[in-house]
Structure formats: C-alpha cells, structure tokens
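Researcher: Structure for this, please.
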Amino acid sequence: MRTGRPFELRLLGGFELLANGEPVALPESAQRLVAFLALCHRPMTRLRVAGNLWPDKNDQRATANLRSALWRARLGDGSCVVQVNGPMLGLCPSTVLDVAQLSAVTADDVLADLESSGPADYARLFDETLADWYDDWVIVERGRIAQLQLRIAVALARDLIARGDHFAALDLAFRTVALDPLGEVKDRILGWIP
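Model: Predicted structure, token format:
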C-alpha cells in the first residue's frame, strides 16, 4: 500500500481530508479512525485503537470493525492516510494536521495573515475541534485544543488592541465564546478595549 501521497487533515470545525489539495470522501468509520490517530499524536496498537473507537463491543467485534475501517480508509489509487506497521497504526508522517499546527502559531503569524488576507482566514483557528462529534476521546482532546486556541486568542487580542484595531479584537472576543462558554476570555478581551 502506497502512503507517499500528500495529505492534509482538518479537524477544526469538522472532519476534512485533502489529498493533493482535493477533498477525499471517507465513510464515517474511516473518519473516526483517522481522527483518533491524529489526536493521539503517536502510533497506537490495533487493540488500543479498536477498544477506544468501539468501547461497547467485545475485543473480537471491535478488531473486526477496525479491519473494516482500515479497508475503507484506502483511496482508489491504493494510498492511505493511515500507516500500518505490524500491530501499530498511525497517520502517514507527511500528513499536515491543522490542530498540530496550532502549537506553532503565534499572534505575529495571525497578524501577518490578517494583514494580507483579512479576518475570514484567521477565523478558522478558533473553530471547535470536530464540532458535532461527541465521543469521549474527542471531548477530552477538544478541551485541550480549546485551551491552546484561547491562549492564541488572548495574545492576538492584545496585539490587535495595541495596534488600535478594536473592531478585530471585538470580533475575536466573540469568536472565543464557543471555546469558553463561561465567557471569561471574552470578558477579559472586552475589558482591554478602550
């Protein structure tokens, strides 16, 4: 099975897999497998993956479901975003993952993008991870990623206010509400705006 095809996986907002820049349609079971491996950040044993994805099934049924999901994750040209190495499963090492890129994002990066392309482009940074997915493993990772997104939002808001771009800071404050339902970050940002 070839795995050299360049993949991009977007989990912010919802599941989207791109191969060579083109969207790839995967069945739900394959989407869940790919998303789980992406959020694990390292290869996992087949049994652990199966147990997490199908916790209500016995080991035999869960591993059968995993085999089916692996088969469905293959593309027509034989490439696959999932890399199988004996009992270990992981994402293709060349896969670009939006949530992994968040840790490298700085307020300066977002400001540069904002200046060149406008507010719509940075807005995706603050989308909820796998919106409308409610598996336990998704909820835990969603919370971890939301904390990172909120730290980026606070740094960005400070820079926007310092530049006098109060409208963009206000827009950013309200984008954080889905990530921070109590509105603590929103209130902090609004308190900085003169």
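Researcher: Any notable elements?
Model: The chain has nine helices and seven strands. The first strand starts at residue 7 and ends at 10.
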